[in-house]
Design goal:
The structure holds 2 protein chains of 2 kinds.
Chain A lengths: L16 H7 L62 H13 L5 H23 L7 H5 L3 H4 L18 H28 L1
Chain B lengths: L1 E7 L2 E6 L11 E9 L4 H5 L15 E9 L11 E4 L2 E2 L27 E2 L16 E4 L7 E2 L6 H7 L2 H11 L7 E5 L3 H12 L4 E6 L2 H11 L2 E4 L6 H7 L6 E6 L9 H9 L8 H9 E9 L12 H6 L3 E4 L4 H13 L11 E4 L3 H9 L8 E4 L4
Parallel strand pairs in B: 10-11, 10-13, 11-12, 13-14, 14-15, 16-17
Antiparallel strand pairs in B: 1-2, 3-4, 3-8, 3-17, 4-5, 5-9, 6-7
Helix pairs in contact in B: 3-4, 3-10, 4-5, 6-8
C-alpha cells in the first residue's frame, strides 16, 4: 500500500494541539501571524523609530573615509574604529576605490589586506611597549583550565580540524621565515 | 579604558584604549555592564570576515548605563540603564522607515549589502563594539531602549541579538499550525529558534547538531527532538525517514559560515577563506525540507560566494527567507513572552567571564570547551 508522500494526506502528528499546549509553555501564543512582530516584512512607520530628522546630520569626516562605490556618497554616520594605515591601508583603499561589492576582487583584496595588517601589526608590536604575547592572546591556557581534552571526547566532528587551527595561524610565519632564510642564504653565498 | 582588541586570526587581548567620544550630535556613550560573545564573533575571530582590522574592539551584544549624550539626544539621559540592539541604524532611511532596521542605508559607508553592526568589521561600518568598558552608540534616540525594571542584565543582553535573532528566524520560517520544523545548530540562536517555533504553533521541532551537550540543552530548554548528525551516515536521508519521507515543512539554518559536517566545505571556508561560508547546514536544509517548503536563514555568512546547492532549492520550489534581525521590532512581543514565563533567556548562559580574561573566553567558545553554550563578558566597571 503506497504511503506518504506518494498519497495526498499529511501524516498525523504524535501530539494534538491540546497536548502540545499542555506540554510546551506558550505553545501557539504567536499562532496568528498578526501577533508576529516581523510580519509583514515591510511596514511603513517612520514615526515609531524615534528619528527626529528626515536625513541625519552629517558626522565630521576627519580623514578621507573609504566607502563602497555602490554608495552615492559617504553615509552621514560611520564608524571610526581603525583608520587604514600602512601597506594594508593602501590595499584597502584601492579595493574600495576600484571594485564594487559585486566583484570577488573587492573581497579577496580586503582579505589579503587583513593578512598584511596582521603581519604589520605583529612586526610593529615588537617595537612597542606592549608586544604581542601569543600564549595570552590565543587563550590557549584555557585548554588546561577548562577541560581541553575531556571536552573533545565523544562524537563531535570538529576535533578532526582543530589541529589545523595552529597551522593556519602559524603557516604564514613559517612560510615567511623560510623565504627569508632562503634569501639570506642566497645573498650570503653570492658574497662569498 | 580597558577594551578587548583583535590582534589577528585566533588572537585577541585586553588593553588600554581611548574612551570613545561623541562624534555626532545624536551619539551616546554607554558604560558597558554586560556583554556577550556571539557565535558570529567567531567568524571575525577566525579571520573570515573581510576588512576585520587589527585593533578593532568586537562585541555587538551589550547593555549598560548611559554615561554621556550628544546635544540632539532627547530620549536618553546619563544614568539610564539601556539595552542596545546589535543594529546601528538611523530610523529614517528608506529601509528603516519600513521596519528593516538591519538594512539601514545611512550607517555603513563600507557596504550597501549590509547595515551597521557594532564591533563587526569595517564591512559592517567600522564601529567599535561593546566588549569594553565604554562604547559609542550612534542614533541614541533610535536604537537603545531603557531596560525594564523587572529585567536583569543577563536577560537583557541576550535580547540585543541572540534571542531576538532566534525568534526572528522562527518567524522567517512562516510556521503554520502543526508544521514540522527542523533547526540546524544547537547554539544559542538555534536553541532560541527551536523554542520560538513552538510559540508559532509547530507540531514537531527537531534540532540537529554534533555536540551532545548542546543537543541535551535543546531537549531540556527547547523541548526538541534531537539528532547528532555524526551518528548518521547521511543526516538528510535520516530526516526523510523520520518524516515519512516527506521532509520537514520548515528548515532553519542557525549555523552559518563555519558549519561542520563536510570537511571540504569547512576547510575551504573557515580555514582557507575561499568561500564566504561553509554552506553545509544550508545545503542540508535545502535537501531535508519538503518540496514547496520554507527555509529560514539567519546564520551569518560572509560576503563572498559559497557553494550552495541552488539547483535543488529551485527544483523543489522552496521559499528562502533571510535577513539580519531587526532587533528592536522583536522586543515588545519578546518582553510579553518573558513576563508570561514562556522564555527565560539566561537559561542558556554557561559562562560569565571577566573582560580581562576575554582571550580565554574566545578560545573556550571557539573550541567548544567546558560545555560552553553562551559566554557573557563582565567588564571591570560593571
Amino acid at each position: 500500500m503506497p504511503t506518504m508522500p506518494y498519497t495526498p494526506d499529511k501524516p498525523k502528528l504524535a501530539e494534538s494541539p491540546d497536548e502540545l499546549r499542555a506540554r510546551i509553555p506558550g505553545w501557539g501564543a504567536d499562532l496568528d501571524p498578526a501577533d508576529r512582530p516581523a510580519v509583514p516584512k515591510e511596514r511603513f512607520a517612520p514615526e515609531i523609530t524615534g528619528a527626529h530628522w528626515e536625513f541625519p546630520e552629517r558626522q565630521p569626516e576627519k580623514w578621507p573615509r573609504e566607502r563602497s562605490i555602490e554608495h552615492k556618497f559617504l553615509t552621514p554616520v560611520f564608524g571610526t574604529s581603525c583608520p587604514p594605515k600602512g601597506l594594508s591601508g593602501v590595499i584597502r583603499r584601492y579595493s574600495y576605490r576600484r571594485f564594487s561589492e559585486g566583484r570577488a576582487a573587492h573581497w579577496l583584496l580586503l582579505l589579503a589586506a587583513d593578512r598584511v595588517d596582521t603581519a604589520e601589526s605583529r612586526l610593529g608590536s615588537l617595537f612597542s611597549r606592549n608586544p604581542d604575547n601569543p600564549v595570552a592572546e590565543t587563550g590557549v591556557r584555557s585548554e588546561f583550565t577548562h577541560h581541553g581534552l575531556s571536552s573533545r571526547r565523544g562524537n563531535r566532528v570538529d576535533k578532526v580540524h582543530h589541529p589545523l587551527d595552529p597551522v593556519v595561524v602559524a603557516a604564514p610565519w613559517v612560510l615567511a621565515g623560510g623565504v627569508a632564510f632562503l634569501l639570506v642564504r642566497r645573498v650570503a653565498r653570492r658574497r662569498r | 579604558m580597558r577594551a578587548m582588541v583583535y590582534r589577528g586570526p585566533y588572537r585577541v587581548r585586553v588593553q588600554e584604549k581611548d574612551r570613545p567620544v561623541v562624534e555626532h550630535p545624536n551619539d551616546a556613550i554607554v558604560r558597558v555592564t554586560r556583554a556577550a560573545i556571539c557565535g558570529s564573533d567567531l567568524h571575525l575571530y577566525h579571520g573570515m570576515m573581510p576588512d576585520t582590522r587589527v585593533g578593532m574592539t568586537f562585541g555587538h551584544e551589550f547593555v549598560g548605563v548611559v554615561d554621556e549624550v550628544g546635544p540632539s539626544v532627547r530620549n536618553l539621559k546619563p544614568g539610564d540603564r539601556v539595552m542596545v540592539p546589535f543594529n546601528v541604524y538611523c530610523g529614517s532611511c528608506f529601509f528603516c522607515a519600513r521596519g528593516l532596521y538591519s538594512n539601514c542605508h545611512n550607517v555603513n559607508p563600507n557596504a550597501t549589502a549590509v547595515g551597521g553592526i557594532y564591533g563587526y568589521s569595517h564591512t559592517c561600518g567600522g564601529y567599535d563594539g561593546g566588549q569594553a568598558e565604554y562604547v559609542r552608540v550612534p542614533f541614541a534616540d533610535v536604537g537603545p531602549s531603557p531596560i525594564p525594571e523587572w529585567m536583569d542584565d543577563d536577560d537583557a543582553v541576550l535580547l540585543t541579538d541572540a534571542l531576538a535573532t532566534g525568534y526572528f528566524g522562527a518567524q522567517l520560517g512562516d510556521i503554520a499550525e502543526g508544521d514540522v520544523v527542523v533547526v540546524f545548530g544547537a547554539g544559542p540562536v538555534g536553541l532560541y529558534a527551536a523554542k520560538s517555533a513552538w510559540l508559532m504553533g509547530a507540531g514537531r521541532v527537531i534540532v540537529i547538531d554534533h555536540l551532545d551537550y548542546r543537543l541535551e540543552k535543546a531537549a531540556s530548554f527547547a523541548h526538541a527532538e534531537t539528532y547528532n548528525f555524526a551518528e548518521y551516515d547521511d543526516i538528510v536521508v535520516h530526516m526523510k525517514k523520520i518524516t515519512d519521507h516527506l521532509g520537514a515543512d520548515v528548515a532553519i539554518d542557525a549555523v552559518g559560515a563555519e558549519a561542520d559536517g563536510n570537511l571540504l566545505q569547512h576547510v575551504t571556508a573557515a580555514k582557507l577563506k575561499l568561500q564566504g561560508g561553509s554552506p553545509v547546514a544550508l545545503n542540508w536544509a535545502i535537501d531535508s525540507v519538503r518540496k514547496g517548503g520554507t527555509i529560514s536563514v539567519m546564520g551569518a555568512y560572509g560576503p563572498m560566494f559559497s557553494a550552495v546547492k541552488f539547483g535543488d532549492a529551485m527544483n523543489k520550489g522552496l521559499t528562502l527567507r533571510t535577513n539580519q534581525c531587526p532587533v528592536k521590532r522583536q522586543w515588545p512581543r519578546l518582553f510579553e513572552h518573558i513576563r508570561n514565563g514562556y522564555l527565560k533567556p539566561s537559561d542558556i548562559v554557561t559562562h560569565r567571564i571577566p573582560l580581562e580574561h576575554v582571550a580565554e573566553a574566545y578560545h573556550i567558545f571557539s573550541a567548544k570547551l567546558d560545555g560552553c553554550i553562551k559566554p557573557l563578558i563582565v567588564p571591570n566597571a560593571a
